[in-house]
Amino acid sequence: MRREIARLALHQLVTDGRIHPARIEEVVEKTRKQVEEEIIETGKRVAIDLGIHGLHPELIRLVGRNEISFFHTDKIYFNTQKKQQNFVL
Q1: Residue 50: which of 35, 66, 34 has the closest Cα?
Q2: Distance between terminal CA atoms of the chain?
Q3: Sign of CA dihedral 50, 53, 58, 59
Q4: What's the rounded Cα separation, in Å, for the pair 61 and 64?
Q5: What would the pLDDT profile of 4-43 be if each residue is shown by its tens digit?
Q6: Helix, strand or coil, per DSSP, at residue 37
Q7: Where are the domains of the chain?
Q8: How far is it, in rounded angstroms, from Cα 84 to Cα 74?
Q9: Are 59 and 44 in contact (CB under 8 A)?
Q10: Is 54 left (phi over 0), alpha (psi -120 to 50) or beta?
Q11: Going by C-beta distance under 8 Å and a sequence separation of 6 or more, which residues neighbour residue 8?
């Protein structure tokens, strides 16, 4: 996740053009908060898609983190759905 935060922060800094130490720290912190919010929202969406209710917040965060880590592939999400469907059967 640190790499993704750094990538997003660097992109924002280069786009903005204001690159100095105080601004870097500000943008990195803001980006870290945005990524954390995205992780939680993604985890909630995955839990809802799978029909799992009352999941512990830390598990929601872990699911969201895995989903975002493998954003370009749907392997984990697909495998999670498959396992959940097998469990229900």
Answers
A1: 66
A2: 35
A3: negative
A4: 5
A5: 889 899 999 999 898 899 999 999 999 999 999 999 998 8
A6: helix
A7: 2-88
A8: 15
A9: no
A10: left
A11: 31, 34, 35
